[in-house]
Amino acid sequence: MTPVAGWRWAPAWVLAYVALWPAPGIAEGVLVLGALIALGKLVFSRFRGGGQLLSHQAWALTSVLFCAYWVPELVSALDAVDSARALKEAAGDLRYLPFLWLAAAAVGDARGRRVTFIGLAVIVGVWTLDALLQAVAGTSPLFFGLDAVKQAISHRPICPPEEILEANRLSGILGPCNPKLGQVLASLSPFALYAVARRFDGLGWVLTAAAIGVVILLTGSRASWITYALVLAVSGWRLLGGKRLLAVFAAGAVVLVVLGLTSAQVRERLQRTTHALSADTQGVDAALSGRARIWGAALCMAKEHPVNGVGARGFRHAFAACDPDPTQPPAWGAGPALHAHQILLEILSETGAFGLLLWLAGAALAWRAWRYADEASREQAKPAMLALAVTVFPFNTHLAFYSTFWGGLTLLLAALYAGSLLARRHV
Fold this sequence. Notes:
The protein is mainly alpha-helical. The chain has 18 helices and no strands. 71% of the residues lie in helices and 0% in strands.
């Protein structure tokens, strides 16, 4: 079956959106324009029986996963602290749905999957090499170029000077004022690892895993260390076997020790982690960078607003009333905590039990689709499945899922998963 004319560019649109994440405003413009074009294509093709765009099953799963994310946001806005603003945010997030259809359609045939998944692998590779150059030379070439363009256009840098001085992590192309490189690379790494393994087998996987792993360690984000460890365990098990995979983790532990001795960022994170060995709650909270205090506040919000929470992105407004230790300065600096830093607590505190039920229903439907898919469909969806699974892994700390950046990344992975698992047959 030949793809409908005009949808062959869908993979390029998805890749442009991801590649432009270092420039959030432009990336958002690409998303909105792609959503509008997708809606136009939908009107002329889908509603005239156009199953060529996307299989009915993929269309349904993509829509359901979006609703599992968006409906709790809408319901939580009804009695949020700033209800009018919350409703406006919920209405604005509807822009994601047609773009997710476009993303699912991008991987709905063999050519689209190949272009999209290899393109994501290339982006991960380029960002990894750029970060390695920053580790050696002290400056990210890609961020330096973006910052030069920004200053030429607006006469202002991407990052304020004071934030650059305070930065103490490897940030790569995202820049010192946006220290999310570790989480982003960890979540997208399955695309690179599976692509390299198919072409260069085990040796290519090991070399690629080592390069990405060094960068993720140097970013100093312990959450991304856990995410990446899960990626390595799942993607390397069948490829290398148990003994070789264990050797990979042993080598990784050696690298971590070496970096702990030579890198200030890694050493500080390791030292902070050892505070968890102390018997008192203050030591545990210090090891978690104040997360224990934040999680206590999240549980308070869930108890005080059990049905629909305090409102998506309302955590910062409700924090003062639920702060378990208001007289002590917070470990994260001045100001309230902005979100719960843990997916289950974020959902419970901001969208309540209603939101958690819908998220669990979405997860159950995603798992059901995987369970009943044939082996060929599972194989072609593995990179997207693993990327989505480790991103929402509940036994980890997280960025805010109801923020524009991390919410957009998570929804994109959900669409790539649905589109690749339930792709159109015989294409």
